[in-house]
Amino acid sequence: MTNLMLRDIYVYPVKSLAGVRVSSCSIVATGFKYDRKWMLIDTDRQFLSQRRLPKMALIKTVLTDSELILSAPGMDNLSLSLEPKTGEIINSTIWHDQVDTLAVSDEADRWFSRFLQIECRLVYQPDTAIRPVNPAFAKPEDQAALSDGFPFLLVSENSLLALNDAMQLDLPMLRFRPNLVVSGCESYAEDTWRDITIGNIGFRLPKPCSRCSVPTIDPETGKTGKEPLSTLNRLRKWQNKVYFGQNALHNECGILSVGDSVHINLIGDRQPPL
Fold this sequence. Notes:
The protein is mainly β and 274 residues long. 11% of the residues lie in helices and 36% in strands.
């Protein structure tokens, strides 16, 4: 594994909306800057995702130097500041966590509610709202934004190639919503990685990522199919869950760029043990 490198970087500004492929990105306390800093909630202040609303996959995001621009079929573009002004504080629920978030704007709420045909609000996690990572897998100082639980998801390029070969399909990497895509290793090599360095930044990989229904949603149509869960259920099932990719935590802040070298510092037992 001498030619390992960072092949792609993806940032997902709004939880469960389309991601952005970038050539480089700053890493802050919660992960990539602007990654999962915004989120949609329903009238019960519960987070919304493609699991419940597959149509969310059709909302595209673009990051400029000062704005987050959202687009969706049949809708005018919505432009939002990357530094939201102080708004109403809303205690939002994401899985088992409660996070104090800021309401973004009435305009944003109307835009999303109209497209998704459900009453919802767009909220933002300010830097003052600290969300710790599950202590069973993290250090006390580790924190996340509004991702499912970890700052990063890492997948190797050849893992997707192997899965596509098993399915006889050509699903894109974006189906699996990784932040870090590594090339130059064997398929599923990341199952054994425990400590790695990308560029000048160290990462810990404490647990594999169990997959929900989101990868079955076509990001271009919003329609749901059987794959890849059907094949993952056959090849990558463990303890009644299916796995693809590894959750990751960073040891320091800095900047990552596509093409950065990847070094494996520590290898452990395969997770999941398949």
